[in-house]
Amino acid sequence: MQHIFIKGTDDSKPTLLLLHGTGGNEHDLVALAKEIDPTASLLGVRGNVVENGMPRFFRRLAEGVFDLADLELRTKELVDFIDEAATQYRFDRKNVVAIGYSNGANIAGSLLFHNGPIVKGAILHHPMVPRREIEVPALPQLPVWIGAGKNDHMCPPKESKDLEVLLTVAGAEVEVYWSDYGHQLTHDELNAAKAWYSNHF
Ligand code: MLT
């Protein structure tokens, strides 16, 4: 997968896996990740699906309606990529924290829904429930942070609330931050994610 790896200055820190929103690329979340942890290594990845010229991590049939077969396939593709990147760049595969926005948050959620605790934690900016008809594997004490907007029409509040419940039932320790805004990322939301990250990693 097309990607960028930026080696951090502190090897004990997690490697931050950066997953962009629709139309983004592997560079999109680099500045945000540097705010969250200036010393961590960063692995920014570009989704392999292209919708009207816009990169995504998996196909959708309509807005908010996901192609589940493709979601499964692309989730596996991402897992294989992370494994290969860990060998190539010599980072600790067991010490990876995912940071995703929108479509990137959805594939990050899908990593957990299909594989269990395959990352050490996750920061999900404006996620949806990736799929509803499967049982989420056990995620004992997995730290997950969700940033959601009360007026987000792309990712309605119910999606964030349902995701919180599904992850919590699976054993994850979920914290949700609510902004009064829509689908956009705000500085307050970033600061909240940063504070949560500092407490956990
Ligand atoms: C998705 O398709 O993953 C969600 O609708 C969010 C997005 O448009 O990126």
TrEMBL record:
Top-level division of the source organism's lineage: Bacteria
GO molecular function: hydrolase activity
Gene3D superfamilies tied to this protein: alpha/beta hydrolase
First and last residue of the signal peptide: none
Keywords associated with the record: Hydrolase
Domain Dienelactone hydrolase: 78-187
Record bears the keyword Hydrolase: yes
Identification of the protein by name: Alpha/beta hydrolase
Organism: Viridibacillus soli
Lineage of producing organism: Bacteria, Bacillati, Bacillota, Bacilli, Bacillales
